[in-house]
């Protein structure tokens, strides 16, 4: 029958037979890890990382005239109230805040209390230094005046003691002008975007101006440490490319005086895994936009139970990206993101022959072009004891399998070649519910339009997934991972005890093409010990146990241990 089949059919059977060799090798996972899976399992999903630094400190002693402050004295019959000094809101709107005083006899203290309601109204609307007060006046026929000083900028003094260019600084602060009202959202956005610029730290102060009703603003900009980074060691790898890894990341801030940033990273797991990356980003425009380029290269050589295959490969990822703040404030932030990645994936198996040429060993070459766009942001609780972070990204890609025999095999089975789409959602919730007790909830989900290449799949197992299972276990096209942690702050400074549970489920192939099980559910729980000093060091030790059956015959009844140590410099 084989001799009567068309040529492409023979190739498919020949390649199927070649892959069947894997089933005779001991303790293999369901699929052989390749370049795509290798770069996929390097990524970390422990948290949703939102751009932007913490809000700069704004000192304020800009107090407007509070008017008459008598606590005792004769009561005044209030027949009517008139509100003057502002043109932002209709008088009847403001009068509704103090109408309960009309027709009554009130002391000055009681009148001041009502004026403070109007002050609060303006503060709630974002007018930081606004003040309503009872001015000195002669009250006739019970008519009382409440005067509002909204507060305008007087002198604006910028003290730039940094390497950031004067032009860049002035561009970020251009919306703050003498004679304008002091508005919280405008001031916060300008200072936050300026402070987000790499390599600087911003402080601001509001003080009474020389003229009544004005507020002076002083902005001070200083350089911060030029080169920062971190080194880490962990066992977050896997048995095929090395469990123990060493990593480094170095950031060169404000490299050329325009707020740009150069980042170099690397991961080393002996001869089995080497990953290096470089990225550069620079502010664009005056509204906080960042344009960046990146490149990363990964080389792997399979060891462990796959060593006999002599399998190795490389993955190169080149990309460009743009991030734009849409909303930038102290309590809520929203960014838009867009980018393009070009991936080149090469796999080589020395012990398997190519289906097209028996004199050559097996080679698989693929290109993946991906456009992605989405949003990322966070929302802080009003009391400051919690934060919700989120990201939503849609990707449109095109996979090109360049090896003829692999393309033929793919056309018969997985059908990953060609256009695809996927959407990724990440939500993280962190909150203190008592003085020493907090929780951390994390959801990561993916929905695919079709069967995906390994480089686009999500993987359940690992230190940043279901921790009771090895890194790289249970890859799939569509799925979700939910992690819940309860943290208790120990009396020892910087030390926390964590209790966690992880659950993940995936659809292995969005479009099933054989009769094998197409869904995987993993659950695990455990204990964690965290020792952390912000911007200095961190150490995390996790013990995790399976609550569902093992995959691929793993024998780890005693649980799994994950350890990571990081030192910042």
From TrEMBL:
Residue ranges of the TM segments: none
Example GO BP: protein secretion by the type V secretion system
InterPro entries linked to this entry: Hemolysn_activator_HlyB_C, Polypept-transport_assoc_ShlB, TPS_OM_transporter
Keywords in alphabetical order: Cell outer membrane, Membrane, Signal, Transmembrane, Transmembrane beta strand
Residue span(s) of domain Haemolysin activator HlyB C-terminal: 213-529
A Pfam family reported for this protein in Swiss-Prot or TrEMBL: ShlB
Signal peptide: 1-29
Polypeptide-transport-associated ShlB-type domain sequence ranges: 77-151
CC annotations in GO: type V protein secretion system complex
Molecular function via GO: protein transmembrane transporter activity
Top-level taxon in the UniProt lineage: Bacteria
Protein name per Swiss-Prot or TrEMBL: Hemolysin activation/secretion protein
Organism of derivation: Pelosinus propionicus DSM 13327
């Amino acid at each position: 029958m084989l001799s009567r089949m068309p040529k492409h059919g023979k190739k498919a059977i020949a390649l199927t037979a070649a892959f069947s060799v894997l089933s005779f090798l001991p303790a293999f996972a369901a699929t052989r890890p390749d370049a795509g899976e290798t770069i996929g399992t390097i990524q970390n999903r422990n948290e949703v990382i939102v751009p932007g630094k913490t809000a700069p400190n704004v000192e304020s002693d800009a107090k407007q005239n509070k008017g008459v402050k008598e606590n005792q004295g004769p009561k005044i019959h209030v027949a009517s109230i008139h509100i003057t000094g502002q043109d932002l809101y209709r008088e009847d709107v403001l009068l509704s805040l103090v109408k309960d005083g009309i027709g009554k006899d009130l002391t000055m203290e009681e009148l001041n209390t009502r004026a403070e309601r109007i002050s609060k109204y303006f503060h709630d609307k974002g007018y930081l230094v606004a003040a309503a007060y009872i001015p000195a006046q002669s009250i006739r026929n019970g008519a009382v005046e409440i005067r509002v000083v909204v507060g305008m900028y007087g002198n604006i003094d910028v003290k730039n003691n940094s390497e950031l260019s004067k032009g860049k600084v002035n561009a970020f602060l251009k919306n703050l002008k003498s004679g304008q009202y002091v508005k919280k959202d405008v001031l916060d956005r300008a200072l936050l975007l300026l402070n987000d610029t790499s390599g600087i730290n911003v402080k601001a102060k509001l003080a009474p101006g020389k003229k009544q009703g004005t507020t002076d603003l002083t902005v001070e900009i200083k350089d911060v440490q030029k080169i920062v980074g971190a080194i880490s060691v962990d066992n977050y790898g896997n048995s095929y490319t090395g469990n123990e890894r060493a990593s480094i990341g170095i950031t060169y801030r404000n490299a050329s005086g325009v707020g740009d940033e150069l980042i170099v990273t690397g991961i080393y797991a002996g001869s089995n895994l080497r990953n290096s990356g470089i990225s550069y980003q620079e502010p664009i425009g005056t509204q906080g936009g960042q344009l960046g380029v990146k490149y990363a290269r990964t080389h792997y050589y399979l060891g462990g139970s796959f060593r006999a295959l002599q399998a190795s490969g490389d993955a190169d990822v080149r990309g460009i990206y743009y991030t734009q703040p849409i909303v930038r404030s102290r309590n809520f932030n929203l960014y838009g993101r867009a980018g393009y990645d070009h991936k080149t994936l090469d796999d080589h198996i020395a012990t398997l022959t190519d289906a097209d040429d028996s004199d050559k060993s097996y080679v698989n070459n693929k290109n993946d072009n991906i456009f992605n766009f989405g949003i990322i942001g966070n929302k802080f609780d009003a009391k400051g004891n919690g934060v919700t972070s989120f990201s939503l990204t849609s990707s449109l890609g095109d996979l090109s399998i360049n090896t003829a025999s692999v393309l033929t095999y793919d056309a018969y089975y997985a059908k990953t070649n060609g256009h695809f789409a996927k959407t990724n959602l990440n939500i993280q919730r962190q909150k203190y519910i008592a003085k020493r007790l907090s929780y951390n909830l994390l959801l990561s989900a993916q929905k695919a339009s079709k069967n995906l290449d390994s480089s686009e799949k999500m993987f359940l197992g690992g230190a940043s997934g279901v921790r009771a299972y090895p890194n790289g276990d249970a890859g799939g096209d569509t799925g979700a991972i939910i992690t819940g942690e309860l943290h208790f702050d120990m009396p020892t400074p910087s030390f926390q005890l964590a209790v966690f549970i992880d659950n993940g489920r995936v659809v292995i192939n969005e479009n099933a093409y054989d009769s094998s099980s197409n869904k995987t559910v993993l659950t695990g729980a455990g204990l964690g010990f965290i020792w952390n000093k912000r911007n200095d060091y961190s150490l995390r030790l996790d013990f995790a146990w399976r609550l569902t059956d093992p995959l691929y015959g793993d024998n780890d009844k005693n649980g799994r241990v994950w350890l990571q140590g990081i030192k910042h410099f």
